[in-house]
Design goal:
CATH architecture of the largest domain: Orthogonal Bundle
CATH superfamily of the largest domain: Winged helix-like DNA-binding domain superfamily/Winged helix DNA-binding domain
Mean pLDDT: 83
Distance between the termini: 90 Å
Number of helices: 9
Low-confidence stretches: 182-193
Number of domains: 2
CATH class of the largest domain: Mainly Alpha
Strand order of the largest sheet: 1-3-2
Largest sheet: 3 strands, antiparallel
Structural class: alpha+beta
Number of strands: 5
Radius of gyration: 28 Å
Shape: elongated
Order of helices and strands: HEHHEEHHHHEEHH
Helix content: 40-55%
Strand content: 5-15%
């Protein structure tokens, strides 16, 4: 593998990793010596600093991690806080209430109640830390079962799910007499021809 390709590969690994990755792990997956990884990462660090990039590579003992440049921490903080503090849409609140009162539930259960696709809504709530994967249903396809998180409890100011307000009872006709009062006896009588 050419040096440019090795450098690009190391950069891609660090970018995709998101968390610290040991130099030995990078060396092993690329089939090169650890000293070569140290050299490549050192050159990348120098290059990023010289070009005043918005990101940098930091060394953490024997590991490396790509992260944002401290110089731009205020802008990053504002952007991430803005995204984090975006109010929940009505659709997101509906999904949360369905999950909170019926958990653990599958995505298809939520969609059946709402009558619309909930892929984006559920993923958005997972990103916000309000929903999480609890387990998988023992059924074909092993669908994911979702539930609320401790963050959900914190955001909504409850200590446990039993502290959530009770759902209102729906008034359904108990028997035919309720229906007869509304519509009259003629709907229950056979039609004369």
């Amino acid at each position: 593998m050419a040096l440019n390709d090795m450098t690009a590969a190391v950069e891609a690994i660090l970018f995709a990793g998101g968390s610290p990755i040991k130099a030995s792990q990078i060396a092993e997956c690329m089939g090169i010596d650890v000293s070569e990884v140290y050299k490549i990462v050192s050159e990348l660090m120098t290059e990023y600093e010289a070009e005043n990039r918005g990101f940098k590579i930091v060394r953490l003992n024997e590991s490396y991690q790509m992260c944002s440049n401290n110089k731009y921490r205020e802008q990053v903080r504002q952007a991430l806080d803005h995204r984090r503090n975006t109010p929940l849409s009505n659709a997101a609140l509906e999904i949360l209430s369905i999950v909170a009162y019926n958990q653990p539930v599958t995505k298809s259960y939520v969609e059946q109640i709402r009558g619309v696709d909930c892929f984006y809504g559920i993923n958005s709530l997972i990103e916000k830390g309000l929903l999480e994967e609890k387990s998988r249903l023992d059924a074909p396809g092993r669908p994911i079962l979702y539930g609320t998180t401790d963050e959900f409890l914190r955001v909504f100011g409850v200590s446990e799910l039993s502290d959530l307000p009770a759902l209102p009872k729906l008034k359904l006709p108990d028997d035919e007499s309720d229906t007869q009062e509304k519509f009259g006896d003629d709907i229950f009588s056979p039609k004369e021809e």
